[in-house]
# Entry
Amino acid sequence: EVQLLESGGDLVQPGGSLRLSCVASGFTFSNYAMSWVRQAPGKGLEWVSVIAGNGANTYYADSVKGRFTISRDNSNNTLHLQMNSLRAEDTALYYCAKGMSMTTVTKYDSWGQGTLVPVSS
Amino acid sequence: QSALTQPRSVSESPGQSVTISCTGTTSDVGYYNYVSWYQHHPGKAPQLMIYDVNNRPSGVPDRFSGSKSGNTASLTISGLQAEDEADYYCCSYVGRNTLGVFGGGTKLTVL
# Structure
């Protein structure tokens, strides 16, 4: 059974930094793209970032480009999202998701329960 | 990249069928056969219901089906059940080296 467990969400002040993690189990982690998707309060889903299974390719939403960095540790089945220069509009529930292939940017068949990131002073 | 356009809400009675539309452009939905649909019950993990326009992942009931015509993709749910009440999001591939784009989401109410 695929399991994705996010952690790291916490209250942070504007301009601050936070690192989210997602520990995966139940599948061969390095064979699949992974993604972070967020949902702001009262809003819809938004892709934040995607990383290919081998880590060779990464993609970011324009809203986070230059501030967020996605990475993965395939030896420890862990996905990370380093978030710097956080803004109030980054406040959201952040989901970790598993892709259906090495490089997909639209097909994610398993999702975690999410970790909450409130950005406020 | 602009979000895909979905109706904000739809409603139908149990046992009936409902179709949710997702309108894009010739650069996304109209060009690529890479449209996915996600079901999201608030507070829970989203679930992939349809991928590549009309394919169902294992475990998704065949009451859920997808299609596409021109720039508009559609999700049809037949034999509506109470547990189908959720938010539904479409998503399309928009090209190499970039993320996909979601629709704004449709809230399905089963009356």
User: Anything to note?
Assistant: The mean pLDDT of chain A is 96.
